[in-house]
Amino acid sequence: QKEVEQDPGPLSVPEGAIVSLNCTYSNSAFQYFMWYRQYSRKGPELLMYTYSSGNKEDGRFTAQVDKSSKYISLFIRDSQPSDSATYLCATPYGGATNKLIFGTGTLLAVQP
Amino acid sequence: DVKVTQSSRYLVKRTGEKVFLECVQDMDHENMFWYRQDPGLGLRLIYFSYDVKMKEKGDIPEGYSVSREKKERFSLILESASTNQTSMYLCANRGPTGYTFGSGTRLTVV
Prior knowledge:
The complex is a heterodimer.
Chain A: E1 4-6, E2 11-14, E3 19-25, E4 32-38, E5 45-51, E6 54-58, E7 61-66, E8 71-76, E9 85-93, E10 99-102, E11 106-111
Parallel strand pairs in A: 2-11
Antiparallel strand pairs in A: 1-3, 3-8, 4-5, 4-9, 6-7, 7-8, 9-10, 9-11
Chain B: E1 4-6, E2 10-13, E3 19-25, E4 31-38, E5 42-51, E6 54-57, E7 64-70, E8 73-78, E9 87-95, E10 98-101, E11 105-109
Parallel strand pairs in B: 2-11
Antiparallel strand pairs in B: 1-3, 3-8, 4-5, 4-9, 5-6, 7-8, 9-10, 9-11
């Protein structure tokens, strides 16, 4: 079992839809979670991070962590064609070196 | 903002060649990483470095080595390229505000 699992998609939605992207993790020691966005032929860029359970909102994006079920989510409201990208969840491990372990990524297409 | 630059966007190499992938950061961050990204497998850590001349194996180091002679530069070396090393290679560093990735090098081994 991978330590971080993510629905690979692809996910296709119409412009304006609410998008839900999800990951699960297996290690209850993971404390800190990140969402990266990766456009085609580019490197990942940090979108949001959360620490512990609860919600964190940034504009149209909301990151949610449920530690009891080991479930992390990213919601995108009023989705735009410019949101079309691969979204990766990640969590650091390895103590001081803080290596990142990634989900496999979900490819999202927002249709105009 | 931190900038991480990978010298090549696309590379085509022949089986058996020695390949160098270069990565440069414009800050003084200690931790640098090499990942490869493959469809269905996501990003997997090859090697990382926590200071000059200091390195550790990641999850998939076989067939790779690294070099960090200066803090700003972290090189990934494929000693004898093979077709199963065809992939997207991503360099990253870690600073106080988190990780910054380069744009990636898409390597094709023929």
